[in-house]
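STRUCTURE:
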């Protein structure tokens, strides 16, 4: 649940400002917890014995066989692929920061090389067959995310505020300020991204009529969201408090001392996104391999898995090397695809399946979430795309 998007939250706060930033963080936490509860409840909404183990299966139940596929599958694929691209960039940047912090006098290496080093790990890890075989990787990722988030906010507090800290909006123009605000909405949306694999994870939990999977799954979600709050709010608030509008789009890049602790935190990020990359890649592997076997009669097995998964890793690594703009990518993809699958698609499916009475409490809450989600989906990509263009102006490709 705690993704590397947490590292961009202080930067988002610098684009939102104190008041709007805290309000948007809190509202996003509440809305996404609510929609996650809906996903858990709908996992077995068709009755005992019938489980929707994939996001698109639930959508097909809600919207029909063909329409459900067309609504969800493209979005879910983009979510998972875009997350893996962002994690390639995050892993490479954190590796470089680790190298530069541990050995400040060593010869500087291109960021591109560090993304390649990070990506090379996944050629091996991607051969794991399913989610159950990844439990150790997932647990490691969870521990790492809690650890580096704690380091990020505690070292920000220990460092204290910059003597000339500035909390005003950084952009010189009103248009620039508004577009940066839009980008920040996408950054926040990207941070709350567990919905896209929640049904796949719930599918691994045994379920009977007496003990349905939704009960232990919901307990797990509540624990996860408490951890999310413990990680997200302190990092966002203390990072912005310490650096103001000069904070980097990755808070750990801004922090310098104590050197050993910052180096450790960046290595924890690397370990975390190694696991998280695989969590988001696994549904893509599953979907594509099923398609190739059923539609094109490929033979299932090690050869298909090795070729297809290696191609996927290579493509995400190439895009990450070409556009290593963490802040812009997170803002663009956060609004474009994370807002639909996280903020409002669960609400639309809930309305379609359960049909709550018009103007009832459930009906009103769902429509409020839909309105907020659509707003983020429309506005955030505009700000994210502008951020990418601005970053590209001063960037030497493959540098």
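SEQUENCE:
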């Amino acid at each position: 649940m705690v993704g590397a998007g947490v590292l961009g939250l202080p930067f988002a706060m610098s684009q939102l400002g104190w008041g709007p930033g805290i309000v948007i963080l809190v509202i996003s936490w509440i809305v996404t917890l609510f929609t996650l509860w809906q996903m858990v409840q709908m996992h077995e909404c068709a009755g005992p014995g019938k489980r929707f183990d994939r996001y698109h299966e639930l959508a097909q139940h809600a919207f029909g066989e063909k329409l459900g596929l067309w609504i969800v599958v493209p979005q879910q694929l983009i979510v998972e692929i875009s997350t893996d691209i962002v994690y390639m960039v995050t892993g490479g940047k954190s590796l470089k920061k680790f190298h530069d912090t541990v050995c400040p006098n060593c010869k500087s290496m291109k960021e591109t090389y560090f993304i390649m080093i990070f990506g090379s790990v996944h050629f091996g890890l991607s051969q794991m067959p399913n989610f159950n075989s990844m439990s150790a990787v997932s647990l490691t990722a969870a521990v790492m995310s809690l650890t580096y988030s704690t380091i990020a906010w505690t070292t920000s507090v220990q460092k204290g505020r910059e003597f000339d800290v500035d909390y005003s909006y950084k952009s010189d123009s009103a248009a620039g300020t508004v577009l940066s605000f839009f980008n920040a909405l996408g950054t926040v949306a990207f941070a709350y991204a567990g919905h896209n694999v929640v049904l796949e994870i719930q599918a691994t939990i045994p379920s009977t009529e007496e003990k349905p999977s939704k009960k232990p799954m919901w307990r797990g979600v509540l624990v996860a969201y408490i951890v999310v709050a413990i990680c997200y709010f302190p990092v966002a608030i203390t990072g912005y408090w310490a650096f103001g509008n000069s904070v980097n789009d990755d808070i750990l890049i801004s922090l310098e001392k104590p050197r050993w602790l910052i180096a450790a935190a960046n290595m924890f990020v690397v370990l975390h996104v190694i696991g998280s990359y695989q969590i988001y890649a696994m549904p893509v592997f599953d979907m594509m391999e099923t398609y190739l076997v059923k539609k094109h009669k490929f033979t299932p097995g090690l050869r298909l898995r090795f070729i297809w998964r290696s191609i996927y890793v290579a493509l995400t690594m190439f895009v990450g090397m070409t556009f290593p703009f963490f802040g812009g990518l997170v803002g663009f993809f956060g609004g474009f695809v994370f807002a639909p699958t996280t903020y409002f698609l669960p609400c639309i499916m809930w309305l379609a399946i359960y049909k709550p009475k018009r103007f009832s409490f459930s009906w009103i809450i769902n429509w409020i979430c839909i309105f907020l989600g659509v707003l983020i989906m429309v506005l955030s990509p505009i700000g994210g795309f502008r951020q990418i263009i601005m970053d590209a102006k001063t960037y030497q490709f493959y540098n």
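REMARK: The two ends are 32 Å apart (CA to CA).
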